[in-house]
Write a structure and sequence with these properties.
This protein is of the alpha/beta class. Helices cover about 35% and strands about 15% of the residues. The chain contains five helices and five strands. The protein has helices at about 10-20, 80-85, 105-110, 130-140, 150-169, and strands spanning about 30-35, 40-45, 95-100, 115-120, 145. A five-stranded mixed β-sheet has the order 2-1-3-4-5, with helices on both faces. Helix 3 links the parallel strand 3 and strand 4. Helix 3 runs parallel beside helix 4 (about 130-140). The longest helix is centred in the C-terminal third of the chain and has 18 residues, at about 150-169. The radius of gyration is 17 Å and the shape is globular. The protein starts with 8 loop residues before the first helix and ends with a helix. The protein binds zinc ion. Zinc ion binds near residues 77, 79, 101, 104 and 105.
């Protein structure tokens, strides 16, 4: 008999994005992204972090203060890292991301040929940065789709699978 409560593709790829987010050193906002091609292969993955060589212990993760002493000039967003880490042409692919993309990432997403953005949280909706990203996505014909009621089910699946691992060992 086939197992019935397996996770969907959306839950699977957003799960990978969520897992990537756990790698982030940012205390406030952990974001993960996962790019999937039309054959359902993962072709890029990323989370928000500093560029290679920019040490997490010397560069600031602060949100407030003088600009040069905050994270903003230095951090590479999850979507940008996923695009830069990609091993293949991203034309026609789908980006899964745990937070709706900012305007800078929207530009990269559009230019890389990604055709759909699937996201979870949208906590900055209404702020100008995100109005700008929506405006560009609309103009470029990028499909936007929000996953709802997602994390609880994954958490449960995750706990179950950890339990299974414990049971086996
Ligand atoms: Zn961004």
């Amino acid at each position: 008999m086939k197992r019935e409560n397996y996770i969907s593709w959306d839950e699977y790829f957003m799960g990978v994005a969520n897992l990537s987010a756990l790698r982030s050193k940012d205390e406030i906002t952990q974001v993960g992204a996962c790019i999937v091609n039309d054959r359902k292969h993962i072709v890029g993955i990323g989370y928000n972090g500093f560029p290679v060589g920019c040490n997490d212990d010397t560069f600031p993760w602060e949100k407030d203060g003088k600009w040069l002493e905050t994270k903003y000039p230095y951090v590479v967003h999850a979507e940008a890292n996923a695009i830069l880490n990609a091993s293949v042409d991203l034309k026609g692919s789908t980006l899964y991301v745990t937070l709706f993309p900012c305007n800078e990432c929207a530009k990269l997403i559009i230019q890389s040929g990604i055709k759909e953005v699937v996201y979870l949280r949208d906590k900055y909706n209404g702020q100008e940065i995100f109005i700008a990203s929506r405006k560009m996505f609309k103009a470029a014909g990028i499909k936007l789709r929000q996953l709802e009621k997602y994390s609880l089910r994954i958490d449960q699946e995750w706990k179950n699978s950890l339990q299974n691992i414990k049971d086996i060992s």
